[in-house]
Records
---
Amino acid sequence: MKDKLGVANLVQIVPHYSPLEAVFLGALNVCGGIVPTVYLLATSKFIDSAISFSKNGSGKNSIFLFIFIMVICTAYMWLYPLLVELIATKLENNLRKSFRIDLTTNIASVRYDYIENQESMDLISRVCREPEARASQSYQRMLSAFGLILKIGGIMVILFLRVWWATLVVAGIAALVFMVAMKGGEENYEAERLAEKHNRKAHYLSEVLQGRDAVHERTIFDYSEKVNEWWHSQYETARKIKLSASLKWLKESEISGILTSLMILGIILVLVVPLKNGALSIGLYISIINSIIALIPDLSWELPEYTEAIAEDKEYLSDLSGLLKLQHNKEWLSTPSSKVSDVESIEFRNVTFSYPGLCRDVLKNVSFLMEKGKHYAIVGANGSGKTTITKLLTGLYNDFSGQILINGIPIGAYSSSELKSMFAIVYQDFAKYGISLFDNIAIGNVNNFDEDKVYEAINEMELSSLIESLPEGVLTSLGRISEGSVDLSGGQWQRIATARALVSNASVRILDEPTAALDPISESKLYENFEKINKGKTTILISHRLASTKLADVIFVFDDGSIVEQGNYEKLMSMDGIYSTMFNSQRSWYIYGTEE
Ligand code: ADP
């Protein structure tokens, strides 16, 4: 795929993925454009021959020849849409197999900050809505428009050779209609772009109203009516934006339609003059009039429709080109390196970082050293920069100042594949896959699959009794996506997500507050268990609940992007600083907390 795309690129994209069908469709449309002119000429000759036959009995054979040509043309015009549909379906299937995959691969490797950015996510969602259908339809529309131009051009040439001025009038009208339609198309796509923002919000709110994630809160808080109002307002805004653009376009099309019809009728009347002085034969006059009448819907509806759609395609292509211009990191598609490097040390030296487009620093002059085999905890209030540390460590962002060193070597010197193999992370918003329990864990290391490791992780995360209670044991399908699937509690899902990280060969294991579903006591238990399992390995626990970090060798206390205290539990408590204050204020959770 090229970097800059225009409508002409459709002529390259589609044939690139489905050459045979693309050429076939092209040939059909060229014939479809030429046939009406042949039909016009055959009809005019037929009428003139029929008249001369009726006058002096000559030209019988040519009458049959012209009838034969007319029948062939009619048959072609009848078969043409059927053939186009057949081939277009095949073409779309080919695009689905290749173009969509290329696009998905492309998106999978865009730089991480685009994924976290609303605008680029909107762009991606616009481009990826049935891309194969869009590409195939756009291509067909271009060919149809080309066919239509050939059709109009053929009639014009015949007309020009007899009455040149009438041709100029028709060309003028066509140009006017074309311009109005082009503008309408751009406006329509712009409206779609605006409506997209509201549609996304409406879609999200409908998920809140109907999805499973919020089912309990929906019942308890009884907010459905309120959220419904929000949903309706977003939906209505999107609908009104699109409606007003469509109405505007309809009005413009109506005016150009009426104008076209009136002017073409005028031309028909004017052509009586050349008919009278012999510049046009009766046959040609009747055929040209027929063709011009047939042109009315073409000029007033089809041409504007095509041009409007082509203008939309142009906008789509500019989006597609925008997407291709997003900076990529092809390396992200790489699998974790099979050669796992041992992480002896991780060091941050005066690291300062801000997210793209954010006007403040999220990490401010952060320095710390982590050594192999020790347990670390990063604590601090929400938004203090804890998760950002993991994003930098895994190479998702590299635009920081200061130095991040792994084994004394700057992080930039490692490939994405090497970094992936160093860290196993259980994220805050870990995924719940609707596949078997076994695969839910094994997916953590598909590239170096080791069945024994999966069972080891099952034991370590104490999942055996859960598995025994499931109808098909480890092979039970989880979630609620298919019949016979079993859904689990938040805590059980959480243990599975943690087991997924354990099957990896990574030497550093990170738990990034994967505990939203857990009460404080269960969270503490999870962390204790995690540290026990990972004895001898480097672990990093990220949490805003302090009691769970008591066992860590070193605790880093983050506040507003800086490390304000560090040391082990005893040291931090004796400092009487932020940690001990927060610890004491959270103590009540553990007294009143309940088990999972
Ligand atoms: P924590 O993990 O401590 O809750 P984070 O590291 O996730 O905090 O975030 C630190 C700060 O950076 C927060 O103020 C958050 O709003 C901001 N932030 C996080 N991700 C982004 C992003 N992609 N773009 C802009 N700001 C972000």
---
Amino acid sequence: MPDFLFLLESRLNPDQYRVVEQVQAAAAEHELHLYLVGGALRDLIYGYPIRDIDFAVEGQAVKVAKSLLKRAPDAKSIVADFDESMRSAYLTYPSGLTVEISACRTERRGRPGQKPQIEFTGIYDDLRRRDFSMNAIALSLNPNSRGLLLDPNNGVADIERHEIRTLSSAAFTDDPVRLIRAIRFKTRLRFNLDERTEEQFRAALDSGAIKNASPSGLHNEFREMGREENPVEILKALEKEGLTTAFHPRFVGSKLNLNGLTVVQKLARSIEDVGIPVRFQGPFFYFLQDKLPARDRNDLLKRMAMKRSDQEIWTSLEPRTKKLVQELSGKAAATPSKTYKLLEEQPGELLLFLLMKFPQKKIQDKVKNYLHRHRKMRQTLPRMELETLGVAPGTPKFQQVLDAYFWALLDGKVRSSKEPIKPLKKAIAEVEAGGEKAAKAAS
Ligand code: CTP
């Protein structure tokens, strides 16, 4: 059995690990039992990158979240949503990390598609209500049993077999959104549905159960699809099963804009390849709806009861990019070095959107030069030569001189990058003069 606490420490990024520690401290303050659950634990066990973190609390989860927010030094930048009736809190961090802290509960279903009756209970009941065995594992974060794995449904063995297995024969009819989830996980993780699960999946699909999918469940799946590493592949897999129509009846064939999305996704990869992260969710949603008539688009959002603030992720792209294009056409980008500085501050998704939607050659060239020429140039600056001139690497001065040299190079003020000594000396003098000026101003 692996050491899960060690895995937690080594596999979570510092941002994620800090959150685990903060939630632990908040739960301990209220003397409540706390568990790590859901996708994060599945991905931790499987070795897949961990995205979001879900916690289950035996008791008042909202109190735990509120205590965490009270202590967190970055509380102001965390967006917190509370659902008191579900005793759940949803936190979104500036890095994009989302954290759910929910009270353990059971869900009793009436007719298919109906809202379940909720009862707040302990961790074992909570694990039983979940969709698949791989998602029904808990890791204790309690002082007395920290690191103990609760796996009553043999989820770990299923993960090792690369199998998706439902916990109940009614899993898909109880909550038809799980049909979409099964395909999403199958495609993303390259797992198979186990034999019985496959039968249940086909039976539920054939009975048209997906029509009963809840708006909130669809909303969640829609959002999650955009956060996948390869959303286009997932969209294709969903279409193959006829499941894209769950979002909107006309969401099939050319209306899905699969060809357009493939181009956008490729472009996003090429931006990431030069070292700029792209939050693809916004552009993905924008181009996913691009071929839908406006009326259907509104209908789609209504069906998922999507709030305006949720839509901003793609509706804000156009105005933000327009502003950037204006800046690129004006004084703010009058020289190559100014253009570089301006583009360096932009998130990858905005550069992607600009390249897709704003065809003016002058603007396109500026962005392409930045991405494919100038960023590369910056990686081959004459560091060794600067060292021989007596500037110590790793010091702020070293970086300042390199920057000054780079701006001069971009703006054509360096005759040949093969003879860097003279322009480097000039850059050193510039930086030293700048330093003296600043010191004088301060005194
Ligand atoms: N869950 C469920 N049925 C659903 C949705 C969610 O049983 N229709 C349970 C699962 O146990 C799941 C957990 O709630 O693991 C959290 O759901 P969610 O955050 O949507 O998905 P993850 O499994 O965490 O997967 P990922 O975030 O990686 O997509």
